[in-house]
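User: For a teaching handout, I'd like to show students what a predicted protein-ligand complex looks like in token form. I'll give you the sequence and the SMILES for magnesium ion. Please answer with just the structure.
Assistant: Understood, here is the input followed by the structure.
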Amino acid sequence: MYIVDMLGITKTFGELVANDNVDFQLRKGEIHALLGENGAGKTTLMRILYGLYRPDTGIIKVAEQPVEIHSPKDAIANGIGMVTQHFALVPPLSVAENIVLGNTDGFVVNRAAMEAKVAAAADRFGIVIDPKSLVRHLAVGQRQRVEILKALYRNARVLILDEPTAVLVPQEVDALFETLNRLKADGLSVIFISHKLHEVTQITDRVTVLRDGKLIGTVDTKDMSQSQLAAMMVGRETFGVTRKDEQHEQQPVTLRIDNLCAKNDQGMPALTNVCLEVKAGEILGIAGVGGNGQKELAESLCGVRDCASGSIQLAGKELIGKTPAGFTQAGVGRIPEDRHEGMVGDLTVTENLALEHLNEYTRSGVLDHKAIRTRAEELIHQFQIKARPNDPVRTLSGGNMQKVLLARVLSRNPKAVIVPQPTRGLDVGATDYVRQQLLEQRDRGAAILLISEDLDEILALSDRIAVIYEGEIVGILPAGEATPERLGLLMSGAVKEH
Ligand SMILES: Nc1ncnc2c1ncn2[C@@H]1O[C@H](COP(=O)(O)OP(=O)(O)O)[C@@H](O)[C@H]1O
Ligand SMILES: [Mg+2]
């Protein structure tokens, strides 16, 4: 017997078919992964189940009865709750107030009674949280717990979690998984959206795989290896990049950052006395939970953000005080975090590839269009960009846009490369491509500073790993000594290692 039955679900957005005749069946008391690359249609399918979208065709049954779900209210009435990637909590209110909010049956709530009810619910589901705490004082992992408890408090029997681990450090992931197992033991059903194979194999009973909006299949997790699941997800067997382990002790320091301090957009300190060295032929990974100064660090190192104090030296030359163009000319390659920021969407691939370097194509004041075009064709070929020279950049997929950026920056053989979140939002194929390019740059002898919130990415690529927490470097480890647990402790601010 299925607690949820979604049959023949199709959902289009204009021309785009986000879900194409998808069937999804959820058993009572199972943890069921919805696995697929970015853009596969996972969120869309679950937003349909939660009443945020209406399907074009298809039917939904709950406990074998056909139901109409027009809104989250209908979903909740049918025992379906969803925890989204962006929490919908009210920070100045307490945990108890957030949970009971909108669910008070019209009675005026007595604070003590409300807190007692929430405490009882937390206890019953084994969720550790203080009902009296203000949400704004809670860490991300705790806020997620509040969202889960909020759904359970509304009697959810089906819990949808959309990429819940994306915002968590490893220890919080462990706590989340304990909670999910406990809910499962209570007979609840959990839909766990992820594209991380090791999580899917660790926690789920069954897996439904989507690719390009289509159902590829539903399988028992225990029958599948990670590479078999990867094959279902991307349509090929092998994936991932491998890093050659080498010693970098003898290499000179290319990028030296000393006591760097910078402020965020609100004028508050964002970086405090950051000291880092990146050697030639080394990838230094910066791990950390988002919002701990990563953006400010990347911007400071490219001259885009003014530094309050400190020093940034490239091959012994001071860069502080230079313009962004000055940083580039000195040999810093910058792949901006926001791909759209680095390009002009209405200009063509050819024009975007020449951007920032137009002076080199100018002959006695006139642009040499032929040379620009020839160079663009070479780069399109070399970087395997799936686009024509005259296509406007805005028509490209995220992966191909990232390749245009890489081509523009890396073809100039920069001494140092600053790469914040280089694969965010890319599919597995494009992700592999970008990572391979970074490894090739490293082998060429570039000093690479890789800033990523994806710990798997940091672990796969880095020679050494520094952890940033509240704008400070709280530890630096050689890759061989960096376990997810050790990094997680640093990332959560619980310990410092110097
Ligand atoms: N509201 C929307 N409007 C237009 N296109 C959308 C909308 N929501 C999702 N899409 C598109 O539908 C496809 C599937 O997206 P999504 O369900 O978010 O995938 P996933 O969650 O698997 O990454 C993507 O191509 C996405 O761009
Ligand atoms: Mg999604």
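For the handout, you might add this sentence: The domain at 2-234 is CATH 3.40.50.300 (Rossmann fold).
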